[in-house]
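Continuing the batch. This is chain 6 of the set; chains 1 through 5 are on the previous pages. Same settings as before, nothing changed between runs. Recording input and output for traceability.
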Amino acid sequence: MFHYTIRRLIFTIPTLLFISFVIFFILDTAPNDPTGNLPLTIPPEVRVKIRASLGLDQPMFIRYLLWCQQFFINEPLNMIEQWFDITIGDGTRLRVTSWSTRSPVVDLVVERLPQTLWVVGMSYVVGILIAIPIGVISAYKQYSWFDQLGTFFSMLGFSVPTFFTGLLMIVIFSVHLRWFPSIYDTTHKVTDWSSFVFQVKQMIMPVMVLAFFNAAQLSRFMRASMLDNLQQDYVRTARAKGLKERVVVLTHVLRNSLIPVVTVIALGVPQVFGGAIITEQIFKVNGLGQLLIIGIQGADIPLVQTLTFIFAVLIVLFNLIADIIYGLLDPRIRYD
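Output for chain 6:
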């Protein structure tokens, strides 16, 4: 397993470099202009100087190599300096800088990441905890009232978009019932019990909106995988040996059923970060989704490219994690 992981990590290096070049090429050829939001009274020669100050007067390949140096070399060195409080070299190096805020993009990501992890990460965990039991019970009690009810809510959660669910929850629980705040306060800090209660209240609606959507999809995969394994010969053999039904279902069937579901869960993590853009806009969560929207609206290519590449890294990383978990769940899979 260790050697397989090392080989996969080495193979991901050229893959991520190719992905980064494709992202850079697409964004560079897109019909956008960072000076498009500037007043029309600015003379054309001033616009040319602004574009030159942003490095847009250089060829695309040179700008891509400069971005690679900044992101893959300068940014890691800068993080090492911050973590260990040391200075490498002269301490001055070019970093990936946002065109709109003139701040390092990595610093903006680190600043917004905790809010996204609180909301999006928690929603995905809650969605998994809801989906797996529903899928297991629905498959074991196929065509029962629980299965019919679970199928109805799964289809409802998968069909209704998150922006509609979010607005509906705001109208019901914020406007009429006044139970939860409609706007997520990103400046709030937990210092005592009352502040912790407020943090939980403002997280409930955005977390449940995303959890409901995620659980709807995962529960259907879990149910289908369980139904497929419940018909296998090893299940009948385990029952014939006199094993308890709980052991057969939860130990043998569930473990094998989780193998394909792990792929959906692992590869769904980056999609959740991207899909939470709308939810973050509805509840005003100052996270990565809102940061990406700001970058797209302002034609901030360094910001958009860095965030998009981070999502691509998450896809490759969690794909590797899914393959490793395969070996843990299925003893027949051996990588070494």
